[in-house]
Fold each of these.
Amino acid sequence: MKSNERSKPILKQRNISKIIRPLFGILVVLFLIWRLYLVFIVQNEYSSDTWIRLLISGLIIGGVYSLIAIGYTLVYGILLMINFAHGEVMMIGTFAGYFVFEAAKSINVPSTGNPEMVFANAFPALSILIAFIVGMTVAAASGYFLEKIAYRPLRKAPRLIPLISAIGASIFLQNAAQLLFSPKTRDYVNPDVMSRGNGWKFLINGSQITLTYTGVFTFILSILLMIGLFTLVRKTRLGKAMRAVAMDKKTAALMGIDVDQTISNTFIISGALAGAAGVMWGLHNGLVYYFVGFIPGIKAFTAAVLGGIGNIPGAMLGGMLLGLVESIGPTALGISYQLKDVIAFVILIVILIFKPSGILGEVLAEEKI
């Protein structure tokens, strides 16, 4: 009798939850339909060129979010933990690229015929390549030592403990960067051929739209890196080892796979992708400071949850969708663009309430379900 009496309040709570969640969802949908009706039908203030600009901006930022989100997904798939210091790994890669460009613009190359010509403008492709190599290498090394120092000793601890360690590592890296590089905001100085704001210009409805070089470069490189990672995970020996360790560490070890090395390689790969995203962020947005990785990191986590945590195609899809919603959402809803961060985090809350497994589903081994 006592057990039945105790179970009744739980059943009542579940029944109430089943009623409230659909009602909340219906209210959210009705609100969105009402706002879209006001913006598109009643007010109709924006022409097609505005929406194209927002679409382009969303795809570019979505590509960066996707790269960072993949890092969350890789680590979660193997260790079932959220690496909240991943945004700070991106920040480290951004600073590494910044210092490469600073060095490249301080080296004169008088042999080109122009005594004031600097290395960054004399060899722009090489300068950008070196910036990406250095940024990805430094970020990959940061990811490796982060796993070695902050996570490996806690591998057998309850899942909450590594999560707290990740938050602590995030705060530590932010403060370390602030002490090392000062809290001031610095400007990325791109090579002249990759100057921000320059690009291909075309007219739509009499309005000029610029498809920037940095934006196209960022989007294409993001897609190529995501395809490369997906191929690595699916087709290579390392990728098979990563999937085996994610499925069952003990069985993978019995089959001759070095579990510790595989986990370290996973952090190296995720760190390299975050470093690439950081250099892209600097090239396209032009600003770097000690806090630059925090908000993109949290949004990339939102993208990973949106697509399905642990699911690599889901992280790609979630990043692109979040970038588009963040770019188009404020204008489509008729609210201030400064509220774009609010929209991103509202999406996170809604996804966790209604579909916590994400759009493409969470990828888990049977023993983890």
Amino acid sequence: MRRRLSGPVDVTQLVVSGIGLVILLFVVYRLVATLMGGTYGVSTYASQAIFGLAQGGIYALIALGYTLVYGILFMINFAHGEIFMGGTYIAYFVIAAFDRSGFLESNPLLAIVATVATAMTASVILALGLERIAYRPLRRAPRLVPLITAIGASLFLQYAFRGLFGTGVKVYPDTHLHVAGIDILGGRYDIGGMVVRPIYFVVFLMAVTLMLALWILVQKTKMGKAMRAVAEDKDTAALMGIDVDRVVVLTFALGAALAGAAGVMFALYNKQVTHTMGFIPGIKAFTAAVLGGIGNVPGAMLGGFFLGLAESTFPTLLGLDSQLKDVIAFGLLVLVLIFRPTGILGEVLSRKRA
């Protein structure tokens, strides 16, 4: 005797799965064709992977700001890209002054440390100002209200910096720091046909160090425990004696400090600084946070590195134009939202929010 289906077939699910299978087959076909064709050598892929890790570290540091704020307030701070821009922009004037005075050449390490500290401080001040003026009064408002406010704050900061400093491109000066005979900031070396810039390794290591420091703070300290408690339930945390406003301020400050540090590292190899420079990295970092699982700190780290590597290597691996890297990045976002809406590692949900 035949058994009948227990329910109707989900046609939408079948269509989506079919589209996903077609895309997957296309990707595999292009990948095999490119590798079999031998158009590019191993050195090309290695160079792109090294750059992808550095770029991914930048995305991950910015993404942590998105995921921290979302984990505490359940809002997307779309002005975070401008926090990244603001710290980098202010720090430009410090490193430019060091360059003019000769201090950058004579004491490059101290100059870079001072520049990073300036960027982090400026980003924190901007973030805390936004939190106090724009976000705190709307903490109990429907989620759409602070979201729209964040978009408005993003545009406000862009045009404020444009009005204050003009539309011209600022260029970070060339910086050189020799360690064991290797210029780790401004050097460019040819190793077996592979062009290597040591600054990419520096950016990657600095990003990993900052992310590990954040992870230890969140998981091993009293303040980190308070942050996790507020993320679960703000009202209950307040009843238990936790200062919710203080935790929120600290969360914004941590995310902004990481964005400021990422901005200087980004500018050291990208050089150019403009009032719109935060838009694309901000959107890419948000994409990275969603890819990894927004609200999940390890997910933001993983999403950042994955997106950086994908942008850098996928166009070559698939035999596509490098200008299509943005299409690949946002295509990955769409696919993840379709097949795994909670991200690669899953979104961290409290019972109240779920």
Amino acid sequence: MITFNRAPYIPKAQEYVADVIKSSEIAGDGKYTKLCSEWMENKFSAKKVLLTTSCTAALEMAAILLDIQPGDEVIMPSYTFVSTANAFAMYGAKTVFVDIRPDTMNIDEKLIEAAITEKTKAIVVVHYAGVACEMDVINNISHKYNIPIIEDAAQGVMATYKDQSLGTIGDLGCYSFHETKNYVMGEGGALVINNEQYLERAEIIREKGTNRARFFRGEVDKYSWVDVGSSFLPSEINAALLYGQLECAEKINDDRLKSYQFYYEHLKDLEAEHCLELAYVPDYCKHNAHMFYVKLKDLEQRERFIRYMREKGAYCVFHYVPLHSSEAGIKYGYFSGTDNYTTTESNRLVRLPMYYGLSKEDKETIIQAIEKFLN
């Protein structure tokens, strides 16, 4: 079976993990945590990057930093992972779901303004598949109403919008280094702080509400409990695993882009014949080949396609069930406007295997199976 996903194996990362274990300095914020943060700050021109235990944790930190309270509203797409909404629902906010664009599967920037009320505390954008939302329009809305932007860039590491790294455009950005992402910690993520007003408090929240980071820098003579917070700091073992991959991030990125282009070149004729639809990447984006998806006619054809591909030895998967249609989504949120595309487009979408080191033979097997199914 051709697996859907496989975490990148980098020998140097194994050496770094062994180095941490031998040192016995396994807790977070050690050498490799700092190296990861510095690498991302330099590579992405980010003001501050704090490693976290997950992208979910980074989103929860963002909710705390924005002082989300019961009765507040947070605008986001319904077509996203549960963590995007859950991080704010935990603190009592209503999630206000906005329809997506059918071309990019991202939030429709033209519908955001109509969803704003006096209770709106944040706009959360999700850069689906590492393809950027239309951030100029969204930034203008943010400035007009003085509403902060949080970028859920879980899938966006190494992708850009008009040459600016995803995660560094809004007030706060959130990355994922989960096993399924381009660069992995097993479980892990990062909070990107672009608005300096959140810098000091973010460190405190991440360290269980203490000013421990200031203590270790010699800025205070002792540390104590000064704010709310939680244990958002990952193990040094996880950071070492990640750093080995960041050192060769371009190599991993290029390999994935080559696989993406292989799929595209071999499927574009089927798109021209209206047998399927391929992903659209606007000119203002540089994506990171986080995924390669196709859209089929409808839900029934997609289900047959997934069964057929697995029979042929290729593990393909569908993606999100729209949150607004879920039990918790109905309880904790509501849909603003009309669901013209969120449900119909999500029912059509299926993801093909994509990972670093995906062989040409496996890609050819996948293409041949797709062609046989559609013909």
Amino acid sequence: MQNHPKHIRIDDYSYELPESSIAIYPLENRDESKLLNYKKGDINHYHFRQLPELIANDSLMVLNNTKVFHARLIFSKPSGGMIEIFCLSPHDPIEHSNNFASKAFCTWHCYVGNAKKWKNGLLEVAFQVNNTTYTCQAEMIEKLSDSYLVKFSWNAPDLCFLDLTEILGKLPIPPYLERDAELIDELRYQTVFAEKTGSVAAPTASLHFTQNVFDELAQKNIGLCHLTLHVGAGTFKPVTAKTIEGHQMHHETIEVTIESLTQIAKALSSKKPIICVGTTSMRTIESIYWHALNVYHHPEKLGEIHIEQWTPYEKTVNITPLELIQNLIHKMSIAELKVIRGTTGILIAPGYSFVIVNALITNFHQPQSTLLLLIAAITGENWKLIYEAALKNQYRFLSYGDSSLLWIN
């Protein structure tokens, strides 16, 4: 049983973040960002292109291969007013790839700007493809507790929903940038290895990587393990409760292949360091561990990944991580499953004991956020020294900001 973080006061995880320290635009070159290395209490400063120097030969690096899509869609009311619909997660079909491939119609969970002005009726927007005019309509199906269920339908027979978002949508850059998406964002608010479409926010720790960095990692025989967590808008959700007990974590879709699990098992078996790139990769790997524990005790739940925020704090484990991952691989092989999917709302905060990961590459996060709690789970109270050092050395913060390599105490 791990120490329960529910009584943590979020006020204890605050710091003063000057507006001048927030990166509004990306640097000219991705790997020119600064890199703070924290290990055993020591803090040292590098540039991201030097990352391979800090990673031991034969380590395993875990990356999130999700891709950001144009999730912000603008529609017109019959009266002429504008309504923005922000696509959050697919409802029907429920799987991202199937939903994006839908033709004619599909349904999404969405945020709706100016929702009070959309009282009834269909919203519509016209667009042209090859000099032919088509229309897309949006119908509000249901108001949910924290979002809306919206059905989209369109009369362009050759277009799938992903095509439609590319034509009509806007890139959903972080709201705190307080600017509209620009051409530079289309390129730079996306990782160089983005593959699986579904995120409404980038896995920003990966934005620093270039092919040159990957080439140098390869020279040291550092393996690359890819998995998927589709980042939701909840990543920007502030903690408004006084204690973490009152905060409800958002759930995000995860996907891990048997090949990636085999890479992780091999690294665990050989005791090679496993470095997660980004909090999304870390949350996915740790969630897979808890799913593996569930499958160990309940084999029938193999294909039902569903991790709640308090799951890690409610279980006692007497089985090694390697045994659990190997058992999960074995069960998948028997069932001829090449990939497992599901959702996670895992909360990693002080009191959490890491079971798979040895280090995290991540940017610098907002005060009083669950991401900052995750940093504190890795570094303890030294998170304050790390952030003080970053501010003192003029690091750039948040999504387009600089990076850190944090080794778990």
